[in-house]
Amino acid sequence: MTTLTTITTAARAALLPVALTIALTAGIPDAAAAGPPDPVLVYTFDADDLAAGTIADSSGNGLHGTLVNGSTAVLVDGAGGGRALDLPGGAAGSSGAYVRLPLDALKGKTDLTVSARVRWDGTTAPWQWIYALGKDTTRYLFTTPYNGDGRLRTAVTSSSAGGEAQVTGYTPLPSGSWKTLTVTLDTGAGRVTTYLDGAAVASAATTVTAAQLIDAATTSAGYIGRSFYPDPLFDGAIDDFRVYGAALSAEQVAAVAGGEVPTPTGLTRAEFDVRTTAGTPPALPAAVRASFSDGYDREIDKITIAPFAQRRG
């Protein structure tokens, strides 16, 4: 657990000021604390023959993917050695390559984690979906590096776009370098959370389960590199694409990401004005923006109140 700068907030009971001390903390996972469960699907791309049109699943579950328009994809150096799949992007309906995922990646699941090492090329055509898990535009889970506001966005819904639970970063996904992007769908906590390089970016409340992303008529689990909407195809490279039939803990996400997990370095806002009665804890912001050691700002939502300070006259 890392504790950031203490925030002092002025609160008033009638006309008497009350000094409160609010300790803002961020749970920084220990990557060595717990290992993740076995994934249900793993695409490393290391031994794939793109001309064959099959993306091999190395999990041992036989959930091989289908490469569509494979002549426009290439294998490039991967995030940590080996190979990665580089996708050309392009307009919806173009000849750009993408991967179709087998239905059993989602079938029978309740909780879910999807993780991939991503090197986005930085093309700012909005709404390129890195992956689309689900059936169609009525039920899905996706992440885009650059939404209509130019920000990293994850969303999940089982009732079309109007029912989306949205998790939005403060800026786009950093481009031109390898980043580990992980999303957990945790029905026990009722949250969908986006992680970048093992550290949580933000989360949102949701009641959607993995099982609700498909129905009896669904024939595949979705795509890598393509949206269910007529959005641009993803332009960038994908490596180590994984699906787990469980919501990984923060420690497990850090273990999957590997390396040093980014840590908070400061707060973008250090004071808040609140109004409360004496002896009553004030309403606090749900989350506070913080800068992190990797240069990507994230939300911190673990805010606690220290005992009340002595009232000032």
From TrEMBL:
All copies of domain LamG-like jellyroll fold, residue ranges: 110-251
InterPro entries: ConA-like_dom_sf (IPR013320), LamG-like (IPR006558)
Alphabetical list of Gene3D superfamilies matching this protein: 2.60.120.200
Protein name in the entry: LamG-like jellyroll fold domain-containing protein
Keyword list, A-Z: Disulfide bond, Signal
The keyword Disulfide bond appears for this protein: yes
Keyword Nucleotide-binding included in the entry's annotation: no
Membrane-spanning ranges: none
Signal peptide (residue range): 1-33
Pfam families, sorted: Laminin_G_3
